[in-house]
Amino acid sequence: MTTPEPSPATSARPAASRLPAYERRILGGSALIAAPGLLAAAFMAWSSSSWREADGWVLAAAVIVTALLVRWQRRRLVYPLQSFASLLDALRLGDYSLRGRVGGALDDLVYDINALAERLQQERLQFEESSYLLGKTLAALDNAVLVFDQDTRLRLLNPAAQQLLQADRHQLFGRRAEELGLQPLLDQPSGQLLNHRFAGRSGRFEIRHAPLRTEGRGGRLLVINDVGRVLREEERQAWQRLLRVLGHEVNNSLAPIQSMAGTLATLALRDPLPEDWREDFRNGLELIGHRSGALSRFLASYSRLTRLPPPQRREVALGPLLEKVARLESRLPVTLEAGPALHLMADPDQLEQALINLVRNAAEASLPTRGGVVLRWQAKAERVSIEILDEGEGPPASDNLFVPFFTTKPGGSGIGLALVRQIAEAHDGGVSLLARTNTRGAVATLWLPRPADHP
User: Fold this and answer.
1) What is the pTM of this model?
2) Which residues form the Histidine kinase domain (predicted)?
């Protein structure tokens, strides 16, 4: 490998001669200034008819004093410049702690050099803090981050990338992307999802890369996100919630069945049987049948939730559909507020079922408080919002309202809201259940996309 030429900022200081040219110019200039006087004095002494030996000594003394004054003047001029050179050399070498002493004719220059040193010291501190923060941030990321130079040699990676490649840092630095098996990822369009096998693990990854530029040279940033692990974690949490609710519902049915079966078995072993054994057996079997039927209905609801077919979309007039849903609730009157004439592209049967479930929940919440239910709709930008407002006690404080089989109502199946959300999302919409802000009760909002060709 060839050694790169040093840049001007880092090149070595040229070797000094025995007497630098600048100092020679100072000495020469001072000598030229003193030369006319010395020559005049020598000429006058030489041309004088009364030349004495003492005059020679005076002339020699004048020459010596002039030479000393020239040397003294040179030191006065050179010493501050040497100090400035030392300060600038320290700045060049990265030592920003030295300061020049202010005083004299060069105050402005000393002040500017000191200010430059202080500014560079602050910038170095900020750079070190930013580098430390960047290092900590990269170390905390679950995404693998790698930086390559213009020759696709690896120059930076975080611990997540090291784990993904299963190698020590000194084994990875300086190696080309092709040697690491990462060149195909750099050749892919950014944002692609693909299945890939790394030394550390395999799975589904999102690949993102972008160009970089440092010190006038190009480079590449590569970010690898293991989306498979995120999806597996979400799937695990979903299964945990589902199994927790399933276990609760199944235990609610199996516990009394098991208890009653044990009671009837104990009763059947008694000899002689008690006189009212027939009634005890009948009551026990009725309880077992009731709980078995509830469990069967629960599983049937689960089957209906998992077998929801894709929506068969066609044009649906929203106003008449909401009037029909409002009339279906017979336990209390549902107030239907007037709204704009809107048409949706939706499956009318599924949309009607979702609205029936929301209106039924609102009615059940309002019955204990003798409140009312309001059904209204409106168009907002690119979507249509349908709101069902009740005057009950408000929604329970739980994040599991739309989790299948989760319910806070006695005898509830926990299917209604889950089915509503599944229908809404199948229509590219959504649903929410929040507490009302201006009064007691809850507001359920079902929103669907608004067709572009309808007003």
Assistant:
1) 0.42
2) 245-452
**What are the pLDDT tens digits along the chain (455 aa)?**
333 344 444 444 554 445 566 566 666 666 666 666 666 666 666 665 555 666 667 667 777 777 777 777 767 676 777 777 777 888 888 787 777 765 655 677 777 878 888 888 888 888 888 888 888 888 888 888 999 988 888 988 888 888 888 888 888 888 898 888 888 888 888 888 888 888 877 788 888 988 888 777 888 899 988 877 766 666 667 667 667 666 766 776 677 777 888 888 887 888 787 777 788 788 888 878 877 776 776 666 666 656 667 888 889 899 999 988 888 887 888 888 888 888 888 988 888 888 888 888 888 888 888 888 999 998 877 889 999 998 888 777 655 556 555 555 555 555 677 778 888 888 888 888 888 888 888 898 998 988 765 54
Q: Which is it for strands 154-157 and 144-149: parallel, antiparallel or unpaired?
A: antiparallel
Give 364-402 as a DSSP string: HHHTTTT--EEEEEEEETTEEEEEEEE-SS---S-S-TT
- Per the rule left: phi > 0, alpha: psi between -120 and 50, beta: everything else, 104 is left
Rounded CA separation 386/430 (Å): 11
- Tell me the CB-side half-sphere exposure of residue 280, using CA atoms within 13 A: 14
